[in-house]
Amino acid sequence: MRNNYFTRPIPSDILSLYLIQFSYYLSGVYLELYMDKRRKDSTLMLLHHFVTLALMYFSYMGRYLKHGCIIFFLNDISDAILETGKICLYINHRGGIQRPFGEFCCNAIFFFFTISWFYFRIYLYCVRLLHATNWCVYLLRDHWLPRMYLFFNGLLWTLFVMQLIWSYYILSMCIRLVTGKDKMLEDIREEEIEQSNGPFKNGISTAKKEK
């Protein structure tokens, strides 16, 4: 192991990236707990934020900075497309009016989001990142810390399993759109919550209680 591996300074751009990402996911924990409405995957989303925060912290402390930056890259591309689609969907449904061109844009963005999700978060994440952090690190023994190796890769695999679960939701939405079961793009994560407990606003049911 190199003598200055843990003491050499971290580049300012990488440090800034870590601070921004850590702040973003930390705020996401608060939003998920107190502001966002309940969905079928709310617990999964909260767990995802905690796992991501742990990955950022331990990759920073263990100086696995390259791996951390790769995770940011793989996650943020599909996230950017997803948020763009959400904005388009909200604008399209503004005032209770559905606009055909808006529906086309939403479906097109969802198509590109699906492609980016499975390419970056499933294929590249598994074939490139997990392969590099598991098998390649084991072979090279570069900066070998057995306990850190097992813990860090355990978090990475946990994140991958959660992404597989979300992949199921994405594929379900694609199938429902293609088969015509849904005439427009809808978030299937909200269906059971709304049917069983009524509509939600900021995580609180707005349904009137029966007397």
TrEMBL record:
<comment type="pathway">
    <text>Lipid metabolism; sphingolipid metabolism.</text>
</comment>
<dbReference type="GO" id="GO:0050291">
    <property type="term" value="F:sphingosine N-acyltransferase activity"/>
</dbReference>
<keyword id="KW-0472">Membrane</keyword>
<dbReference type="GO" id="GO:0046513">
    <property type="term" value="P:ceramide biosynthetic process"/>
</dbReference>
<comment type="pathway">
    <text>Sphingolipid metabolism.</text>
</comment>
<feature type="transmembrane region" description="Helical">
    <location>
        <begin position="12"/>
        <end position="31"/>
    </location>
</feature>
<keyword id="KW-0812">Transmembrane</keyword>
<feature type="transmembrane region" description="Helical">
    <location>
        <begin position="148"/>
        <end position="171"/>
    </location>
</feature>
<feature type="transmembrane region" description="Helical">
    <location>
        <begin position="43"/>
        <end position="60"/>
    </location>
</feature>
<dbReference type="Pfam" id="PF03798">
    <property type="entry name" value="TRAM_LAG1_CLN8"/>
</dbReference>
<keyword id="KW-1133">Transmembrane helix</keyword>
<feature type="transmembrane region" description="Helical">
    <location>
        <begin position="101"/>
        <end position="120"/>
    </location>
</feature>
<dbReference type="InterPro" id="IPR016439">
    <property type="entry name" value="Lag1/Lac1-like"/>
</dbReference>
<protein>
    <submittedName>
        <fullName>LAG1 longevity assurance</fullName>
    </submittedName>
</protein>
<dbReference type="GO" id="GO:0016020">
    <property type="term" value="C:membrane"/>
</dbReference>
<dbReference type="InterPro" id="IPR006634">
    <property type="entry name" value="TLC-dom"/>
</dbReference>
<feature type="domain" description="TLC">
    <location>
        <begin position="1"/>
        <end position="179"/>
    </location>
</feature>
